[in-house]
Design brief:
three-stranded antiparallel beta sheet, 9 strands, 34% helix
Length: 147
């Protein structure tokens, strides 16, 4: 039995993929749970049309992400933090502070896509990664200074 998956299923396939499963697994689990539909000819045509329309949208989103990555390529940030006399920060620098610093420069980057690998708890130079798209990411260097 061939089915079209509506979501990613571990060890079976990804969303919008046509896979072959045993009849019982398809009829008794995948279809009643809403995880798949039967891959009839009409369902395959609808899937093909949806994929074609979605390709244009995904391409535009990727181009927008690449354009933003090109703008962010030369950006360097300076973030002020309250520190002790030894140079240790009270608290830590987070992705929220980096997003706010980028917004002050005129770049609208969501804080949820900014990743800092190690905790920033001292004065120094660090790098954050902004994952703008699943295929596009940019490193943003930032320096932490004492206020």
């Amino acid at each position: 039995m061939q089915v079209i998956l509506k979501e990613d299923i571990l060890n079976l396939g990804y969303k919008d993929e046509i896979v072959t499963v045993k009849d019982g697994y398809g009829r008794n689990y995948l279809i009643p749970q809403g995880k798949a539909v039967i891959a009839s000819e009409s369902a395959k045509k609808v899937l093909a049309e949806n994929m074609k329309q979605r390709a244009h949208k995904l391409e535009k989103i990727k181009k927008d992400a690449e354009a933003l990555a090109a703008k962010l390529d030369g950006v360097s940030l300076t973030i002020g933090a309250k520190t002790s006399s030894t140079g240790t920060i009270f608290g830590s620098v987070t992705n929220i502070q980096i997003a706010e610093a980028l917004e002050k420069l005129g770049y609208n980057v969501d804080r949820k896509i900014i990743i800092i690998k190690d905790a920033v708890k001292e004065i120094g130079t660090y790098k954050a990664t902004a994952k703008l798209h699943k295929e596009v990411s940019v490193e943003i260097p930032f320096e932490v200074i004492s206020e």
